[in-house]
Amino acid sequence: MGIVIALVIAFVVLAAWIVMIYNKLISLIEAANNNYKQIDVQLDRRYKVFESLINVVKQYMNYEQSTLKEVVALRNQAQQAQAAGDEKRRIAAENDISNIVSGLNVVFEQYPDLKANQNALQLQEEIVNTENKLAFAKQAYNDSVERYNVARKSFFESLVVSGFPKLYKDFIYWSLPADQLQQKENYTVKL
Amino acid sequence: MTPALASEAAPDWRGQLSRNQSRTQWVIAIFFLIYLSLGFLLDLYFYARLYPVAPLALIAQALLTLHLIPYATLILFGIAAISLWVTYGLYDKVILMGTDHLEVTSQSAHTAAEKKLYNVVEELTLAAGLRFMPRVFLIDADYMNAFASGYSEKSAMVAITRGLMNKLDRSELQAVMAHELSHIRHLDIKLTLTASVLSNIILMVVDILFYGLLYGRDDRDKRSQGLVTIVLLLRFLLPVVTLLLMLYLSRTREYMADAGCVELMRDNTPLARALIKIDQDHQANKAVYRQQYDMTAHEEVRRAAYLYDPIQAGIEPVRSISSLFSTHPSVKDRLKALGFQ
Question: Does the reported pTM lie above 0.80?
Fold first, then answer.
């Protein structure tokens, strides 16, 4: 009799414990999913901000006409890649937009007229804000992937994961593609 | 940049966070033990009066084996729960008491600096993965300080003085906000608030016991001698113990928020620069700031929450025994923890 009770208690404790691990992993997965969507939200916001920014800058420089076209083209590429489910191509296109923006900040420095323009100053703050938000959204996503991966690969949790295929997700860390990485590592400032 | 910042070591923010987390758990465990033993003493006292002939050891044994229901302990925990509930509900209003403040929202931000402040908080809310944007308050004061409050992510707020907003550059402002949002993320305000409410209740109960024994004592009852000695000891020891626990807790949480700031910024220099700037600014404008802190009413409720404890610059807004000790680690120690000598 005593053995039966002990077994039942052990079983209940084990079940409760598995449920706890299961719920924890689910909430980690959902946090990572949500943080991933947050990157989308920020990318969308950035596109709109840059459109209005380029419209302001356009009055000063013809050069920006082509930049606008380039941004729109890259944006389309990114959207098509997203629709096709090609994450790598999408990330590459979005990163190219970031490159154009750092070019824009240099343009700002070259035109004293533009620097003095109040609208342009506000927009410059807006660029910093937008790029920071995007960077922090990526960072938060990577952090949540890290938390999930640590939990998934830990001992005990990994046993539960092997029992429930639903708990296994292969999140990709948001990072630069290898060729771009090399290019950025080699980059030096030429004055 | 300050030369002190030249020697840079990689800050181990993960290690800092977990070390401080276990320190906090110790403090909470000790508080819980104090509560249990205090409730036990109270029960012992009341049951001893109820059963005048029973020996104390027997009553103690009956209480420990739950043959006697420990009413006093239950009531003590009940009082603690109600006080906490009321405090949580009112705290947001209490913390801004006496300051000249305004709320900054995306609509109400007029100047470029206010807009920048709001943007910075928005960015770090994303970085911290908070589900709610905290409310942002701007305090009209020249001294440089900031604090966070709220008992949950949802009710959270950050406040910053105009002096801080105007004197820091963007990355330093980001670091300060990352520190404050880390307080929210770690639920520090809730923790320190809970600890202070609980320690106040402890002190009140010991006082009640003390006076109860002093005036209500039956001289023919030999058993109460031991109780009187214990309560006398507690009356002088517990205030010191709770004060030390509180200080240990708030200093630990300060280090944790600094580590959390590095975690969000992935860079330890901006916070170090901001701390040095704030410290130097307080030293340079000591007289003016002393007056300003003095003129702001209810400064004591914000003291533990501040980014920088003005006492460290020799400014004492609160004149009480506890202001002998700083609620914060010294700026030097904080810089050291950040990886700077």
Answer: no
